[in-house]
Write a structure and sequence with these properties.
The chain is α+β, with helices and mostly antiparallel strands. It contains four helices and five strands, in the order βββααββαα. The model has no long low-confidence stretch (mean pLDDT about 90).
């Protein structure tokens, strides 16, 4: 299974602007820019989208693991906070913190912590953030 998304950018970093598109159409010409990434302009940014993906992925993994252990959740709510900082002169994602609230009948704190830590370690986005990334870059000549 493959999922795709695209980005188009016009101009230099500070004055330029771009748009994000997803195959599903959920993002369609969604604006992003220097102002939406490093200030508080209207639009989105890559870090916000990574945080959303991580919150969604973790929550689904937790639901699956709780159900598999015989404890189907009534409700799970997760917020992901991603930190983007300067490290040795380069912008770097330094951490993602997941904050979860779960309503799961009949589950002990100890068993919940075990399952939640397993979901954190093994959801696909958590594993991606530790994985190698490949690139094929092609320069178009005018």
């Amino acid at each position: 299974m493959k999922r795709t998304a695209s980005a188009v950018w016009h101009g230099d970093l500070k004055q330029g602007h771009g748009a994000l598109l997803t195959e599903s159409g959920v993002l369609k010409e969604t604006p992003y820019s220097f102002h939406t990434r490093f200030e508080n302009g209207a639009g989105t940014n890559p870090e916000e989208l990574i945080a959303a993906a991580h919150a969604g992925c973790f929550t689904m993994a937790l639901s699956a693991m709780l159900g598999g252990a015989g404890f189907p959740p009534k409700r799970l709510a997760t917020q992901a906070s991603l930190s983007l900082e300067q490290v040795e002169g380069n912008w770097t994602i330094t951490a993602v913190h997941l904050e979860n609230e779960a309503w799961v009948p009949g589950l002990s704190e100890q068993k919940f912590a075990e399952i939640a830590n397993n979901a954190k370690a093994n959801c696909p986005v958590s594993r991606l953030l530790k994985a190698n990334i490949t690139l094929h870059a092609k320069l178009e000549h005018a």
